[in-house]
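On clarity, I found the account of how folds are encoded harder to follow than it need be. What matters is that the chain and its backbone geometry are given together, residue for residue. I therefore recommend that a typical entry be quoted early in the introduction. An entry of this sort, consisting of the sequence and the corresponding backbone structure tokens, reads as follows:
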Amino acid sequence: MTSTYLDFEKPIADLEGKVEELKRVATQGEHPVSIDEEVSKLEDKARQLLADTYSRLTPWQKTQVARHPERPHFLDYVHALIQDFTPLAGDRAYADDKAILGGMGNFRGRSVIVIGHEKGNDTKTRLRHNFGMAMPDGYRKAVRLMSMAERFNMPVITLVDTSGAYPGISAEERGQGEAIARSTERCLTLTVPLVSVVIGEGGSGGAIAIAAGDRVIMLEHSIYSVISPEGCSSILWKSGARAQDAAAAMKITAQDLLQLRIIDSIVREPIGGAHRGRAQAIEDTGDAIDLALTELEALTPEALRKQRWDKYLAMGRVGLA
């Protein structure tokens, strides 16, 4: 059960609320009432409704799930999957961006560099991490850490979760576009394995700057797009009111992108989304990363880079008659 329900989850919220109310009534007074059978029936009904609802989510509803405030974020994955994590700070040029975090650690017997967006989980941490929207310093830090990984022959894992790079004047003054381009280029030229996972939102260049990997994995209810649905709606229809239409038109879901060969695999989420089964979602993501790294470690540096280039050069190509 979650403490925050999305708009389309109202029927589920009502049922789960009734279950909690019945449980409270049953334990009150000197002679608690036995209503186990009724509670069990309601719980079964709530579970079935949850499963039915999440089996037919629209792209806009998936967008809402991808943005859920209780969804596990970068630091949750690091704490659960990376042993002896040592954070590394700064771009060695201007500052230490808090929206992109990174460091080295041990992942299932491998020394790795892990990099990712951190959104924060309450008002204080969201402000500290700028809601996962990185400044140029964050992408330059990512480049520094990827270069370090190559120097010491360490695989790179990136966890993507951002609505986009920070669009403010201060970011543009410090070369936001150039920083994103350099980070994307560094992804493509690495001679060590790079596995990228979209764990929530994969928004615009702010996402692809650390997501141009050998394997790109998405969680089942995450999204990956060139622009947010609201931004697309504002451009096409001069209003953000048609974000739902934009979400459907842009093909931003994991299922659409797997069919289009933009990504390589999907990690199933617990019924009701990763926020309802955080530990399981993180563990399953770890299994997917482990499998991808095992496949990539068999390749030579030259073969690895060639395969990565071929992968991205093939996107958008159509056969000639």
Notes: The chain is about 50% helix and 15% strand. The chain has a mean pLDDT of 91. The chain has two domains: 16-56, 63-313. The beta strands are 83-87, 100-107, 110-117, 156-162, 194-203, 215-219, 223-225, 265-267.
